[in-house]
């Protein structure tokens, strides 16, 4: 069984770039089991923090809105089971998307996901061997899903 991987980059990272954080993770996956199908198309911006260095870049709200909707569409287009890898703002998008899946939001219909892997999640819930929770507040309930949430204890974004 092939598992399709969708990556969701962080704020300011270039899309489809070989050196963005999710691309570094994908390189380590077994090519016999995993197939990278998309670096999610979304603004990946929080105002001036964007890949174009535009001081009037898209807002956090716009990035979250477009990211979640594009993620749902990308999952639906996959013929295989899907795994999602998100970094920083991308992990925020995935966390919010999973909350919406849990409550049954219309746009999340038919978006079955096998697992998520999140790095430096601003919505990280407390737990594990890490202090605190994400700077944007701990995420609410998610559907029952395999979730791998990694962070460095000294990083204030996921360990506030």
In short:
This protein is 24% helix and 18% strand.
Molecular structure report:
By secondary structure, this protein is an alpha/beta fold. The chain contains three helices and five strands, in the order βαβαβαββ. The chain has helices at 21-26, 60-77, 89-103, and strands spanning 3-8, 34-39, 81-87, 115-119, 146-150. It has a five-stranded parallel β-sheet. Helix 2 (60-77) packs across helix 3.
Tell me the overall shape.
Answer: globular
Percentage of residues in strands: 15-25%
Subunit organisation of the chains: single chain
Q: What is the share of helical residues?
A: 10-25%
- Look at the helices and sheets and give the structural class: alpha/beta
> What is the number of helices?
3
Low-confidence stretches: none
Tally of strands: 5
Based on CA atoms alone, the radius of gyration comes out at 15 Å
Distance between the termini: 39 Å
Let me know the average pLDDT. 97
Within the largest sheet, what's the order of strands? 2-1-3-4-5
User: How many strands, which pairing sense, and closed or not: the largest β-sheet?
Assistant: 5 strands, parallel
Helix-strand topology string: EHEHEHEE
